[in-house]
Design brief:
This protein is an all-alpha fold. The protein is built from 3 helices and no strands.
């Protein structure tokens, strides 16, 4: 798992940095994750098991 800066995420996804900021603020709250790291672990575990996150 690699930690990326907001501008790196934006460039990789072809979206604006402001969009990344909005998503990085809203998604953890919607998934009850306390941090970006916890969110990444959650989604990595989901991909490993092949289940969806509720």
């Amino acid at each position: 798992m690699e930690h990326r800066k907001r501008d790196q995420i934006a460039g990789r996804l072809f979206i604006g940095v402001d969009t990344v900021k909005k998503h990085l603020t809203r998604v953890p709250a919607a998934t009850s994750c306390a941090s970006r790291t916890q969110l990444a672990v959650l989604f990595n575990a989901r991909d490993t098991v092949g289940q969806t996150v509720e």
